[in-house]
Amino acid sequence: MTKKSIAVIGLGRFGSTVAKTVANMGHEVLGVDKDEDMVQKISPYVTHAVVADASDEDALRELSLNQFDVVVIGIGDNLQGNLMTAMLVKEIGVEYIIAKAQDIMQGKLLEKIGVDLVIYPESDMAIRVAQMLVREHVVDYLQLSKDIGLVEMETPEYLQGKNLIEANIRVRFNVSVVAIRRNNDVIAPPDPHEPLMASDMLLIIGRDEDITRLERGR
Fold it and tell me: For residue 7, is pLDDT > 80?
């Protein structure tokens, strides 16, 4: 795994979670917030943490953000601060920018500024929960595009005891089993000759409608 340098601006719930998680994975992380208490809280978990006003261009330039691989803007509830920070970070010359947005309009404005990836934490989580509620076997769901998802699902009864060759899942349902979680182990790629167990969790990529057909077995 290539070690990356990542700056996270805005250390609220979203930003601090991203910063801690990435740092825990072994990457260099700079945490930035104008709230000194937020900076002190994150300091033990990241490489560096500084107090700075992200709407101040001089303050941002002093951080040498253009030297980082990725800058994550976690300011989502302050529209003006969110957009101003994104604009300044873009002008500084950051290679890749990720920003949090509260709604579609804010997301479109961020994209116009030049943000590479816009995240919608609340709507993404709502979709994730909804998919888990309405699908019988799905225990987790990640939307990859408009109609394609990555799901973790229980092995349907009609597949138990069969291997992937016998089940012929790719041809029958146009989805791909990319991994199998068995107890505490993740088998990736899965052995196509190994029979599926009732306790196996399948990690599957495919269109939502095809995943539904797989659940139903038809």
Answer: yes
